[in-house]
Structures are given as structure tokens and as C-alpha cells.
């Protein structure tokens, strides 16, 4: 593993976007950042700017008004990047599958690397998903 | 001075949810605000017409994940009103138990985010530490941290046994020790006062005219709380709303900080007086006719309306959520404030976009 790869995998910054979720997963992501779960031990920082981010955490299904914002954020992130779909509704549409404004899981709109199921996904599951995403990021960097 | 117009959101670190405020500034002063909403619209009201009415409890719970239990409770109560079902007393008390747990965790979450909004990150961490204890109680009693899913039409699905009640009492005592110093910081700290005192004024008469609800209107001196109706078991528990007279961000913050204590006391009262008996009644029929119900969420009053025609699917379900009533107050609070105060004032009404847009 080269120095640059090592540095990037040790300090991934994440961007969180709420795409019409119920807030349940969003507050669990925030709970991950507090000392009780503490994702900072993996060097992860929560960033508001997509241009600084390596990991995109998306909660909630894609909807018809919001999907362009999501695509825009994804396009603004520099390569290599990984996308984690947090929660059952981000994976498949879940409980909202038959609501008229819902397009389905976010993989209909942007490519997804890791799926974290759960309604709402527990902080432990989210951390597991992010660590899996990091493995994938390392693989991409080493190629 | 030239005017500058720029967007605040839809993706912004202070707001976990997408909402856009178009701000027009003159120098550092905000002169005009236009909210743009619709980023979170899912179409849940229509979705509720497509499912059998008993399944809708799970969909209504997910209108908002923070006040989820109270959404489920309000939905169940409106269906029970339409069908004329009498809920057993133990179920009514258990509903208050989980509803007040939701309120505690929602207020602590908000107090933390508010502290983060004006830069006190360690206070944010302390609030969320106390909140984890509330979530542990929720997980112990219902099996899930935030979306409890314990309400059903006709009662509740889970019961508390003596062992659980003992553990919950012990955890509540622990919570008191954790929250007391946090509460004192919110009450007396000079830094917090300098960021909130006199900021985001919502005069008493304007609050009433705009139809604000919840802590927003109680912070402007109105004793207005749906729990005063005495739905579920609130009538028997002797409920008194928390009111502050300050009309500013500080008053709204103190309403929430004091309501955590109020919920804490209500939960203790419920555990003391929990009546024995059944926790639900079997429900066979389908809803026919219409009903309306008010319930108090952490953010304010929610109104549920339903109409059925005797088939398993509802003909109409309408939800008026608290943040929808509170958003117009921002148009009074924001103009004239400093740009740096925009996040703090926006947060002071605790906007929940998932609720507003459903």
C-alpha cells in the first residue's frame, strides 16, 4: 500500500445527504459521530462540502424532486468515491415503495457500493457498512 | 448597499434535512427570506389509501422518525375514534410512557443540535450522551432504539413486566444525575444567553395570528398544548403545560429543556400508577365515517383526520404536522437578524422537514 493510499483510507471524510428519509437513519448517523459510537477513531469526519468528501452516506429513497440534487452532489465528489445506502428505504424503497413520488432505492439514480439494511439502521450496522466501504475504497486505490 | 441573494440549503451541514431558504442580505443583515420546500415529499397520505388501515400504523410511524411513536399513537387514536373502540387503561398509560420517551429523546437531540449550532460542541456531545440512556430504555422496553412500533389499533403490542419496570426506574435515576448539570448549563451559561437572548423575537400576538404550535408558541407566553385535552392518560396524570414569556430563542430553548423534566416526571408517574389488565382489544371491523384527533408531538400539535367507508382501505387520511404550522414564523423572526444568527434562529423552531412534506 502506497503512502497516498494509506493516507486516504486512514482519513476518509463523509458527506451525509438525506433524500426523503423519515429522519430515523439520519439521527443514527449523527449518533455514530458522538463519542458513544465514535467513528472518528477510523479517522472519519463529517463534512458539509461534497468536494472534500470520499464517502457519500444516503438515507431514504430517491424521489422525483430530490434526485437531481443527489446526482449533483455525487458528480461534485472527487474520484475515487464510494456510496453507502443507509436503511431499507435507501436500498429498495422499503415502506414507501408504493408512494407516488418515490422512484425506489437510490441505486436507480446513482451507483451504490454498500447497502446497509435496517429500519432504522442501527449505528453499529452503519459503522460496519462504512468500514466495508473503506475496504472497497482501498481496493479501488490499489488498482 | 447592494443586495445579495443566495441559497441556504438544500444540502447544508446545519440542517440534516433538505430545505432551501433563499436569503437576501444587505451587508450582514438579512432583509428577506423565502423558504422553498418539497424536497422531502413522498406522498404518504396517498400511500395510506393504498394499504389496509391496520398496516398504515407502520407507514405513519415513518412520516418522521424522531416523533415516530406519537404519529403512530395519533393514527391509532383517530381510527379508534372513527370505529368507537375503547382502549384498555393499561394500554393508554403505556402509550403515554412511550410517547414521553420519544419527547425526551427528541428534545435532547434538539438541545444538542442547538448547542452545536452556536458552536458548543462538547455540550452537543453531553446532550447526546444523556439521550443514549433514553434510547436504551426504549430498546429495553420496545426492542428498537427510535422507531418503537409498539402501537396498534386497539391498544399496544408490548407490555412491561416487573423486572423491566425496576430496570427502567434505575435508568431514570441515572438520567437525572446526567441531565441536571446539562440543564444548569442551558439555564445559566453566559455564552448561550449571548447567542439566544433577544434573538429571533416572535411577539405574543403574532405567534397566535400565525397559528404557531408547540414550544414555539409556548415560548411566546401561550399555554397551548394538545395534552391539555387529556387524550390517552394525560387527563388522569394531571398535566400542566410549560410556558415561558421571553418570546425569543432562549425562551423556546428553555421550554424544551424544562419539558425534558416534565416528561421525566410523567414517565415516573406512569410507572407508579400503571393499572393492571389487558393491553389491547381485538379489532375486527373496518372504519366507517370520519374522525379527527389532536396530539402533542415534541414540535407541537399534530392533527389527524380520517374518513372510511367500511372497506379495509381508508378513503382519505389527512395529517397537519407541527412544523408546517411553525415555518411561517421564520418569516417574522429572520428579517433584520445577522447572517451568523440564521442557523440558530432556524433551529429554534425545530424544523422537521420530513413531517412538513410527508
Automatic annotation (TrEMBL), chain A:
<keyword id="KW-0479">Metal-binding</keyword>
<keyword id="KW-0408">Iron</keyword>
<keyword id="KW-0411">Iron-sulfur</keyword>
<dbReference type="InterPro" id="IPR006137">
    <property type="entry name" value="NADH_UbQ_OxRdtase-like_20kDa"/>
</dbReference>
<dbReference type="GO" id="GO:0051539">
    <property type="term" value="F:4 iron, 4 sulfur cluster binding"/>
</dbReference>
<dbReference type="InterPro" id="IPR052375">
    <property type="entry name" value="Complex_I_20kDa-like"/>
</dbReference>
<dbReference type="Pfam" id="PF01058">
    <property type="entry name" value="Oxidored_q6"/>
</dbReference>
<dbReference type="GO" id="GO:0046872">
    <property type="term" value="F:metal ion binding"/>
</dbReference>
<feature type="domain" description="NADH:ubiquinone oxidoreductase-like 20kDa subunit">
    <location>
        <begin position="22"/>
        <end position="131"/>
    </location>
</feature>
<keyword id="KW-0560">Oxidoreductase</keyword>
<dbReference type="GO" id="GO:0016491">
    <property type="term" value="F:oxidoreductase activity"/>
</dbReference>
<protein>
    <submittedName>
        <fullName>NADH-quinone oxidoreductase subunit NuoB</fullName>
        <ecNumber>1.6.5.11</ecNumber>
    </submittedName>
</protein>
<comment type="similarity">
    <text>Belongs to the complex I 20 kDa subunit family.</text>
</comment>
<keyword id="KW-0004">4Fe-4S</keyword>
TrEMBL record, chain B:
<dbReference type="GO" id="GO:0008901">
    <property type="term" value="F:ferredoxin hydrogenase activity"/>
</dbReference>
<dbReference type="InterPro" id="IPR001501">
    <property type="entry name" value="Ni-dep_hyd_lsu"/>
</dbReference>
<dbReference type="InterPro" id="IPR052197">
    <property type="entry name" value="ComplexI_49kDa-like"/>
</dbReference>
<feature type="binding site">
    <location>
        <position position="352"/>
    </location>
    <ligand>
        <name>Ni(2+)</name>
    </ligand>
</feature>
<feature type="binding site">
    <location>
        <position position="355"/>
    </location>
    <ligand>
        <name>Fe cation</name>
    </ligand>
</feature>
<protein>
    <submittedName>
        <fullName>NADH-quinone oxidoreductase subunit D</fullName>
    </submittedName>
</protein>
<feature type="domain" description="NADH-quinone oxidoreductase subunit D">
    <location>
        <begin position="119"/>
        <end position="281"/>
    </location>
</feature>
<keyword id="KW-0533">Nickel</keyword>
<dbReference type="InterPro" id="IPR018194">
    <property type="entry name" value="Ni-dep_hyd_lsu_Ni_BS"/>
</dbReference>
<feature type="binding site">
    <location>
        <position position="45"/>
    </location>
    <ligand>
        <name>Mg(2+)</name>
    </ligand>
</feature>
<feature type="binding site">
    <location>
        <position position="67"/>
    </location>
    <ligand>
        <name>Fe cation</name>
    </ligand>
</feature>
<feature type="domain" description="NADH-quinone oxidoreductase subunit D">
    <location>
        <begin position="286"/>
        <end position="358"/>
    </location>
</feature>
<feature type="binding site">
    <location>
        <position position="67"/>
    </location>
    <ligand>
        <name>Ni(2+)</name>
    </ligand>
</feature>
<dbReference type="Pfam" id="PF00346">
    <property type="entry name" value="Complex1_49kDa"/>
</dbReference>
<keyword id="KW-0460">Magnesium</keyword>
<keyword id="KW-0408">Iron</keyword>
<dbReference type="GO" id="GO:0051287">
    <property type="term" value="F:NAD binding"/>
</dbReference>
<keyword id="KW-0479">Metal-binding</keyword>
<dbReference type="GO" id="GO:0016651">
    <property type="term" value="F:oxidoreductase activity, acting on NAD(P)H"/>
</dbReference>
<dbReference type="InterPro" id="IPR001135">
    <property type="entry name" value="NADH_Q_OxRdtase_suD"/>
</dbReference>
<dbReference type="GO" id="GO:0048038">
    <property type="term" value="F:quinone binding"/>
</dbReference>
<feature type="binding site">
    <location>
        <position position="64"/>
    </location>
    <ligand>
        <name>Ni(2+)</name>
    </ligand>
</feature>
Amino acid at each position: 500500500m502506497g503512502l497516498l493510499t494509506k493516507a486516504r483510507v486512514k482519513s476518509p471524510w463523509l458527506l451525509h445527504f438525506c433524500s426523503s428519509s423519515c429522519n430515523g437513519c439520519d439521527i443514527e448517523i449523527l449518533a455514530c459521530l458522538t463519542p458513544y459510537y465514535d467513528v472518528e477513531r477510523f479517522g472519519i469526519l463529517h463534512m458539509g462540502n461534497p468536494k472534500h468528501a470520499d464517502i457519500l452516506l444516503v438515507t431514504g429513497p430517491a424521489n422525483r424532486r430530490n434526485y437531481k440534487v443527489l446526482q449533483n452532489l455525487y458528480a461534485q465528489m472527487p474520484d475515487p468515491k464510494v456510496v453507502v445506502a443507509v436503511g431499507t428505504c435507501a436500498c429498495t424503497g422499503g415502506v414507501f415503495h408504493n408512494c407516488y413520488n418515490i422512484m425506489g432505492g437510490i441505486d436507480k439514480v446513482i451507483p451504490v457500493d454498500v447497502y446497509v439494511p435496517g429500519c432504522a439502521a442501527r449505528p453499529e450496522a452503519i459503522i460496519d457498512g462504512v468500514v466495508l466501504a473503506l475496504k472497497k475504497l482501498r481496493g479501488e486505490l490499489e488498482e | 448597499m447592494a443586495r445579495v441573494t443566495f441559497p441556504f440549503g438544500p444540502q447544508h451541514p446545519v440542517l440534516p434535512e433538505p430545505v432551501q431558504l433563499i436569503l437576501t442580505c444587505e451587508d450582514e443583515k438579512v432583509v428577506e427570506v423565502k423558504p422553498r420546500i418539497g424536497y422531502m415529499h413522498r406522498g404518504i397520505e396517498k400511500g395510506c389509501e393504498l394499504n389496509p388501515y391496520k398496516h398504515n400504523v407502520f407507514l405513519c410511524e415513518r412520516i418522521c422518525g424522531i416523533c415516530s411513536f406519537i404519529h403512530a399513537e395519533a393514527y391509532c387514536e383517530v381510527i379508534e375514534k372513527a370505529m368507537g373502540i375503547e382502549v384498555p387503561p393499561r394500554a393508554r398509560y403505556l402509550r403515554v410512557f412511550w410517547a414521553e420517551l420519544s419527547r425526551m429523546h427528541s428534545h435532547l437531540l434538539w438541545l444538542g443540535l442547538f448547542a452545536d449550532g452556536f458552536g458548543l460542541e462538547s455540550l452537543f456531545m453531553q446532550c447526546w450522551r444523556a439521550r443514549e440512556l433514553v434510547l436504551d430504555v426504549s430498546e429495553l422496553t420496545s426492542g428498537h432504539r427510535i422507531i418503537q412500533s409498539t402501537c396498534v389499533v386497539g391498544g399496544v403490542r408490548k407490555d412491561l413486566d416487573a423486572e423491566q419496570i425496576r430496570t427502567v426506574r434505575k435508568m431514570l435515576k441515572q438520567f437525572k444525575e446526567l441531565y441536571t448539570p446539562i440543564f444548569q448549563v442551558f439555564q445559566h451559561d453566559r455564552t448561550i444567553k449571548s447567542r439566544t437572548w433577544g434573538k429571533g423575537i416572535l411577539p405574543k400576538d403574532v405567534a397566535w395570528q400565525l397559528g404557531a404550535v408547540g414550544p414555539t408558541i409556548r415560548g411566546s407566553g401561550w399555554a397551548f398544548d394538545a395534552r391539555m385535552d387529556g387524550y390517552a392518560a394525560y387527563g388522569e396524570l394531571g398535566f400542566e403545560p410549560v410556558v415561558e414569556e421571553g418570546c425569543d430563542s432562549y425562551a423556546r430553548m428553555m421550554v424544551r429543556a424544562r419539558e425534558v423534566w416534565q416528561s421525566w416526571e410523567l414517565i415516573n408517574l406512569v410507572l407508579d400508577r400503571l393499572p393492571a389488565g389487558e393491553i389491547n382489544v381485538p379489532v375486527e371491523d373496518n372504519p366507517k365515517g370520519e374522525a379527527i384527533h389532536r396530539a402533542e408531538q415534541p414540535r407541537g400539535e399534530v392533527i389527524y383526520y380520517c374518513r372510511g367507508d367500511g372497506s379495509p382501505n381508508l378513503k382519505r387520511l389527512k395529517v397537519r404536522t407541527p412544523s408546517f404550522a411553525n415555518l411561517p414564523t421564520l418569516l417574522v423572526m429572520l428579517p433584520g437578524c445577522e447572517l451568523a444568527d440564521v442557523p440558530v434562529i432556524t433551529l429554534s423552531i425545530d424544523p422537521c422537514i420530513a413531517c412538513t412534506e410527508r
